[in-house]
Structures are given as structure tokens and as C-alpha cells.
Amino acid sequence: MPLILCITTKVIVINNTASVIPRPEHSISRSNISESALKVLYKLKKAGFESYLVGGGVRDLLLGGKPKDFDVATDALPEQVRALFGNSRIIGRRFRLVHVRYGREIIEVATFRSHHEQAENEGQALVEDGFILRNNVYGTLEDDAFRRDFTVNALYYNIADFSVVDFTKGMADLQAQTLCMIGEPELRLQEDPVRMLRAIRFAAKLQFGLEAGLKQQIELQGDRLDLVPAARLFDEVLKLFLSGYAEKTFYLLTEYQLFQHLFAQTAEFLEQPDNYTKRFVSLALINTDKRIQIEKPVNPAFLFAALLWPAVHQQSGLLQTPDHPALQSLLEAGRDVINVQLSQIAIPKRFRQMMIDIWVFQARLAQRRGKRPIRLVSHPRFRAAYDFMLLRNDTGEDLQELCDWWTRFQEVSEDERHAMCKAMGGPKRRGGKKGS
Ligand code: ATP
Ligand code: MG
Prior knowledge:
Blueprint: E1 12-13, E2 19-21, H1 35-46, E3 51-54, H2 56-62, E4 71-74, H3 78-84, E5 88-91, E6 97-102, E7 105-111, H4 117-125, H5 130-137, H6 141-146, E8 155-158, E9 163-166, H7 170-176, E10 178-179, H8 185-191, H9 194-206, E11 209-210, H10 212-221, H11 230-241, H12 246-255, H13 264-267, H14 276-293, H15 300-319, H16 326-341, H17 349-364, H18 372-377, H19 382-394, H20 400-411, H21 414-423
Parallel strand pairs: 4-7, 10-11
Antiparallel strand pairs: 1-2, 2-9, 3-4, 3-8, 5-6, 6-7, 8-9
Helix pairs in contact: 4-5, 8-10, 9-11, 9-12, 12-14, 14-15, 15-16, 15-17, 16-17, 17-19
Bound molecules: adenosine-5'-triphosphate and magnesium ion.
Magnesium ion binds near residues 56 and 71.
């Protein structure tokens, strides 16, 4: 993300903890805020509520970037927000948020929350009693700032006067390009170990350094990621690797010894002298980043297939014998690897099947006799499997001839395809050619 900081030191201190940076002294312009977000902000204000843009939206605007979404914070309760916007619905049980929808864009509106973890737990216990829950969970603007993760994520853009409100010295940290935890890193990472992954994600995306205390605590508390529910880690892993900075993120995750808490099976191969795993995963992630940059879709199944390939590759190689062909070995190894992986990350079923298909296809692509290629090329998984094979070849597996053949096969006419198949020989009688 380009760094275009426009921050001066002219700020007004409104109380002991907060500074207000007036409109002329910061770089946020309404023209860079989505129309939907502005509508929400203005409507809340008009109804007499406090209304701020907050989180990554404010951070990225101040850095001259293009926010991927806009979050709004307000003192209006979820029911009050819901009543104001016809196109909205309340989501979440523990922390109720309102999603306001405009076409494909969703603006998330959250009522100011207090930081107190104990209050949150009490709130959770008293979830049946909405009134008590709200009393315990909601707070003031200041509370809301201090319960956030990093100082640069706790800046508020006030739609009432277009100023930026900073309780946590977030502006200074933006300028210093440093990620600082709000409060004690030791405690805040204990409260929520996912903040370690968030720190890595933002460090990669923003090219920020981590403040020393945070660094140290990540090094000490990595094991706590094992306590995070596997379903939440699935969501976080997607954010880590589908934000356009996956290669850098991977590098940082390994540097901080966190990668093993996400993909233990892959991490085992990272130290091998041939460097295959590191090269393969890096290449896959570089490709992912490129696709995102040109706004091409990235399938999570492809990503997970790539991240787990080194383990599948190794395991299927061990299973393979003349009586146990590559296709069968890949299928069995793939299933085993996925089963082990599920204890760390809950990969949804629809993606699991696609991953198996991509892996098994690696053997099928090697079988070019008879009419098989004609069938394979029109299979819905062909393109992903072909791209996957190119990646293996680029990592140094000896597949150049096979890759060139398939590249050409896709380019030529139907007649030429038949000729190419014919040149490979008739259907094979039994067993499979060694395919991976
Ligand atoms: P981006 O959307 O660009 O990935 P973001 O900072 O907006 O980054 P979100 O996950 O959208 O990240 O969260 C919005 C805001 O909510 C954050 O900026 C932060 O202030 C707060 N937040 C999110 N997750 C946590 C958490 N685990 N602990 C504390 N605060 C959090
Ligand atoms: Mg966000």
C-alpha cells in the first residue's frame, strides 16, 4: 500500500486521553468514502446519534489507500439503528451489529462497546436478558477505542465536523509506521490470540514494523493459537492469504513461528534441505497475490490445496507402488492430510472435495492415452488442476513436457486434439503411469 501521510502535529487535546485532528490537518476526504458509508453516517447524525467511521477504513484512508470496507461506530443501540434503515438487519448474538445493505455493499454499524472482557463474559452469560447484556457490553466512544486491537485501528472519523478523534496515539504510530497494541500486549494477546494473526496481516499489508513488546509477546504466545476454534481460524486464514499480501504474510508467519499453528503438516517440510515446500508455497502465494492485484477471483480450495500439497505429495509418494497407482495414492493421501488439517482449521466440505479433485487430477493429467484428455479438458476442475501442475513444474518438478502438451492441447482445434491423443497411443490396459 502506498504511504501518503498527511498528518501534522496541530491537534486539539479534548481531554486527558483524546486528541482531535481538525479537517484541515488530516488527509481524509469524503470523496474517498463510499456513498453508502456516507449515507449511513449522515443518517445516524441526523437522527441525533454520534456517528463515526472507524477501523481499517480510517486507517487506510489516512495512508492514502483504498479501504476494502467501511465500519461505522455509533452510540445508537442496534434496535435504533435497525429502525432507521429499512435495508438493515441485526446480526450476531454476543455482540449484536447491524448490517446496512446497499446493493452489494454492506456497511457494518456497531454500537460503542466497552473493553471489559469480564463484562463481555457476563454479557454472554446473560444473553437471554437483552437489557442486562446491553448494559454490560456497550460503552462510550472512549471505551470503544480502548477495546480495539491496534492504535492505528482505533482512529475515528467524525461525520459531525470531519475531524479525526485519536485516543490511543494512533496518528503518531501511523506516521512511525508501527503497529502498537492498545494496552499490554501480553494481556491483549491472551484475551484473543487471533490478534497475533491480525498483527502479521497488517504488518504485511501496511509494511509496518511491530512494536518491540508486541513482537516479544507473539514469540512467546504463538502456542495459544491452538486454543482458537478451528472455524474462526478458517476465516482468519482466508483473510491472511486473500488480502493481496500473501507471500509477505507467509514469510512473517514462518519468521514468528506461527505458521506451524495453522498448517502443522506443511511446516514439518519447511526445513527440508531441498527447499521444495518453501518454494512451492511461495510461488502459489505470489500467484495468488498477482491474481488479486488484477482482480481475478481466487478459489480458497486452490489456496488450501497448494498450502497442503507438500504433505500430500510426500505421503502419496510413499503409498505409491506398481499395484497402487498414483491416482489412488493421491486420493488416500489427500483424505488423510485433510483429516489431520481439520483439527487446526475447519475447511468447509465444499472446498475439501475441490482440493481432493485438484490433487487427484495431478495423476489424471499424466494419463494421456485414448480419449481421456478430451474428457478431462472439459471437466470443471481442469483449469485449476492445470494451473496447479504449472506451479509444480515452476517449483522444479520435471513436468515441462506434460505442461507444454496440455498448454498446446487447450489451444488447438478439436481435430488436432484427437491427433494429439492418438500420438500418445491407445488406451492403457491396466494400472496407471507414474503420475506425480
Ligand atoms: P481490514 O478490513 O482492512 O482487514 P480492519 O482493521 O478494518 O482491517 P476488521 O477485521 O474489519 O479489520 O475489524 C474492524 C476493526 O474492529 C479493527 O480495525 C479493530 O479496531 C476492531 N477489531 C477487529 N478485530 C478485533 C480483535 N480481534 N480485537 C480487537 N479489536 C478488533
Ligand atoms: Mg474492516
